[in-house]
Write a structure and sequence with these properties.
The complex is a heterotetramer, with two copies of chain A and two copies of chain B.
Chain A (H helix, E strand, L loop, with lengths): L6 H14 L4 H14 L5 H14 L2 H13 L1 H9 L1 H7 L10 E5 L4 E6 L8 H4 L4 H4 L1 H6 L4 H7 L9 E6 L5 E5 L11 H5 L4 H5 L11
Parallel strand pairs in A: 1-4, 2-3
Helix pairs in contact in A: 4-5, 5-6
Chain B lengths: L27 H12 L8 H9 L3 H6 L2 H16 L4 H6 L14 H8 L6 E2 L12 E4 L18 E12 L1 H4 L6 E10 H4 L8 E7 L3 E3 L1
Antiparallel strand pairs in B: 1-3, 2-3, 2-6, 3-4, 4-5
Helix pairs in contact in B: 1-4, 2-4
Classes of the chains: A mainly alpha, B alpha+beta.
Chain lengths: ~210, ~220, ~220, ~210
């Protein structure tokens, strides 16, 4: 059958699941996995492929490579800021949720921060799995209302003169922050530069990258 | 839809907990729940906004207390029950009565293909966009009864068009199984216009569809 | 304050559970929690809106999942800790270090007196009311950062003055320990102006203070 | 000391209590009772007095007496609708949360329903303890948005021609509904009439009273 697209119907299904599935998350997941596999709706090999993809292959190192290249290749940086989806495709990184990727650049006068207040959308293909805090109620609630307070909790102080720009990515556009290149990195290779780029700097909860990579 | 999921700007939430922030999955169950929720959507190309809307219709306290991918998994199971791929009885009892008639599960090759093929939500536009970069816009005051992507904190607010993004599928229609392309804009809002206590010049950007605006 | 406590009109909530509806207390713990929360407020005449605001600042998931009087009790304990009548250490350890310096607990006679003495929140007005019965009013769009009693569902809405109620203590000020009388009105809102899916002529009435209106 | 009136401070106290008090409600209440009594902040006799007041003495029978009198005494009814707080004081029922009581009357054309969406305010002195559903998230969320749907769940069908008036009692005014007198009750005493008045009819989740009192 086709989906009903009926809010009331799925709400009622959720209430049944709430009442009848195990309340412990691990048991609930196990029960559902057994059934979905038994029904033939899920191939166990596909499960392993999904898990491994984000354990072994896809993670914030991709984003870091993109940033490092942008720091060292002005033409690439221009392409990245104009159409990030196409630019990461050049590097073989196109994938989940990267179709409408936007890159936003930090400067001395601007700090960017990314959130999705409605459901935790995230650019998987370029940053891997979102950290738990990105998906947490606290971050979703506070990032738009008190970004400077949230940043302070991450150890990031923002001077009054710096404008904070919060990107609430609730449509299909996804955002990555291009952090500023740290001082004292003139001689470093692209690979060495990429090693300095933290995942949080590409979400915006880290600002000042350092040569020690902290 | 007004609901507890619309968290932006809600007060009373404490510090951000950074536990497990450096592992892709915070537990084995988290990894399995993620994989199940993406693999079980498999063959059916559910509109992304039907998935989101089904998640929004979870028991509200479950929404606020359960792990993220655990919610995804329950959402995918609820969609599968709704579509008749599995019955509520089977899910509750844990006993499959028969193979799903439609069973043609996602293969490893399908996974590899999805991992390298970004979906596009842009479509041919109907007509020209009503607004240009720099235009003032005002958002709808009261929201919509069903799925929509204008957060409550940005309703009835004045903003400025920052960018035009082409015509994208309208989420409100997608949650009803309809493909309706509509002009999409990135809109900047002065934080001080959204939240009474703000005393700085920060800006909040949202990607909003043309029908979310009430006037120029 | 925007928070999860502001439940009016939020969607996704299921049927109303009528368990225990014919008993004054649904459990022994419920009865004790009620009594403790009213008795422990005793000697201190906390403004009612400081109580409400302290409750609103509970951990949001506790607010939505814990029994009602259990929340009252925790709120009263939080107010007592805030005011220094008991320390956080004492509450957490369960070990009293000393009698409270201010201890002068509510007696049975005090209880009897409270049970027969309704509190009045009406005060001498400052100036004449700006609106009359039948006037159109529009509510504030964005709410207030602190405690306030204009629910989110009725913000930025047009209504009609149904009654003038005299000058009552303004909750926004009460939650800050200030006594500020302000004109209070009962305002009728057409349900169809508040909620997009409504197609009847029902009316929602709210008691709102004059400063909650932005214009006539 | 005086209260701080500081939102952040009490929010932090709540977070500590969330983390450190027993998670089981009965144990939490017991622990707090022991401490508050030991600190001398609470007199156990006062606790018993509060509990007994709403078990033995104050309950919806009071409201029912008020309604029955209004049905049989037009002058009292006029006073009740003009100033319910004063009218119930005549009957010795003034008490908690009755200082600004309002009575709203059902008619063939109007049905009234009472809720408090922000915190579950309720006219204790006249109706006793609020039922759990009145304090529940579901009722608070839905009574203003879908009163007819909520009423249907309570077995109350409202004809399209009848206007529903929902009183969201978030200020210090409290509301009681005066239900319609059932047919076939002409010869009954005030006491017998009062026995027909249900608590839910005075909140508005019951409409058609019957001589059998159902």
């Amino acid at each position: 059958m086709e989906p009903s697209y009926d809010s009331e119907k799925v709400a009622e299904i959720h209430r049944h699941l709430h009442s009848h599935l195990p309340s412990e998350p691990a048991l609930r997941v196990k029960a559902l996995e057994s059934l979905l596999v038994e029904k033939g709706l899920v191939d166990p090999a596909a499960l392993d492929a999904w898990i491994e993809a984000y354990t072994e292959e896809i993670g914030p190192k991709r984003g870091a490579m993109v940033v490092a290249r942008a720091w060292t290749d002005p033409d690439f940086k221009a392409r990245l800021l104009a159409d990030a989806g196409a630019a990461i495709d050049e590097m073989g990184f196109a994938g989940q949720a990267s179709g409408h990727l936007q890159a936003v650049e930090n400067t001395d006068a601007v700090h960017n921060l990314v959130v999705c207040t409605l459901c935790s959308c995230y650019p998987f293909a370029i940053l891997g799995m979102a950290p738990p805090w990105y998906k947490a109620n606290e971050y979703r609630a506070r990032a738009v209302r008190d970004p400077r307070g949230v940043l302070a909790e991450f150890g990031v102080g923002i001077a009054d003169a710096v404008d904070v720009r919060v990107w609430d990515s609730t449509a299909e556009l996804r955002y990555m922050v291009v952090p500023q290149r740290p001082a004292g990195t003139d001689g470093l290779s692209v690979e060495a530069l990429a090693a300095l780029v933290t995942r949080n700097s590409m979400i915006g909860t880290h600002r000042d990258l350092t040569v020690s990579g902290a | 839809m007004d609901g507890v999921f619309d968290l932006g700007g809600k007060q009373g939430f404490g510090p951000v907990d950074r536990t497990h922030e450096d592992e892709p999955y915070h537990s084995q169950a988290d990894a399995r729940a993620y994989a199940l929720s993406v693999a079980a959507r498999g063959e059916r190309a559910y509109p992304i906004d039907w998935f989101r809307h089904t998640r929004e219709n979870m028991v509200p306290t479950d929404y606020l207390t359960r792990p993220y991918f655990d919610q995804w998994l329950q959402t995918v199971v609820a969609m599968a029950i709704d579509a008749g791929d599995v019955s509520l009885d089977e899910v509750i009892s844990g006993k499959a009565k028969a193979l799903s008639r439609s069973a043609n599960p996602m293969s490893v090759a399908d996974v590899r293909n999805m991992l390298t093929s970004p979906a596009s939500f842009e479509r041919e536009a109907n007509g020209t966009p009503a607004f240009e970069v720099g235009d003032s816009v005002r958002t709808d005051e009261r929201g919509r009864s069903g799925h929509t992507r204008l957060p409550a904190y940005a309703r009835g607010a004045n903003g400025t068009i920052h960018a035009y993004r082409g015509a994208h599928l309208l989420p409100d229609a997608g949650a009803k199984g309809e493909d309706v392309p509509e002009h999409l804009y990135t809109v900047g809002f002065a934080a001080r216009d959204l939240f009474p206590e703000v005393d700085n010049d920060d800006t909040i950007y949202l990607d909003l569809w043309e029908s979310y605006f009430v006037s120029a």
